[in-house]
Amino acid sequence: MVQRGLLIIVSGPSGAGKGTVCKRLAELMPDLWISVSCTTRSAREGEIPGVTYFFKTHAEFEQMMKRGDLLEWAQVYSNYYGTPRGPIEERLEQGYNVVLEIEMQGAAQVKQQFPQGVFIFLIPPSLDELKRRLIGRGSETQATFNERFGSVEQELARMSEYDYVVVNDTVEAAVERMMAIITAEACSVPRHLDYYHNLMKGAY
Length: 204
Ligand code: 5GP
Hints:
By secondary structure, the chain is α/β, with parallel strands linked by helices. It has a domain of 134 residues: P-loop containing nucleotide triphosphate hydrolases (Rossmann fold, 3-Layer(aba) Sandwich). It is built from 9 helices and 9 strands. A hairpin with a 2-residue loop joins β5 and β6. α1 packs across α8. It is globular. The structure holds guanosine-5'-monophosphate. Guanosine-5'-monophosphate binds next to β5, β6 and α4.
């Protein structure tokens, strides 16, 4: 019997390092699958359509919203971002732990539908470090930097909506903590009730 996977939601301010940490996590945990979101923003250099994001026009995205193809969606910095619903259910059923790397409005929508999800908030070690990382990745204009950095305080205040906080001081240390959280969650009692009932019926 395949044990259904965990749905893991990772949020945090822009520049906290969600992408890097989740990528490393997937390298270390082969049973982990990172969802690929749809977005209307244009691709940055090096981003691969269908791997980094599915890049959509506004009309295409709105169609997906209308059809109910998205598990959640949000408008962020004047673009739409959303999680395709189908692949999530499929991978969870196959026993994969599924990671959604999304911002807080979307995470709140996921919580309504998957209260049993594991909600992790990734934060930078300091605001100076966050600023340095945002500038360092070279993808921001002055205007987008101001927009992203300007919303940090508001974003950090949403920490209490999450189950866990991971400080991304170094990628390796942050990934280690994430792995510990995932392992502990996978061992939790509520996730073993079916197993227990089957055990008592002599199914194993
Ligand atoms: P970026 O443009 O830097 O790739 O992403 C901007 C923000 O959108 C990040 O906080 C990122 O986590 C979030 N984001 C990416 N994909 C999704 C998604 O499918 N849904 C939601 N709600 N946010 C997303």
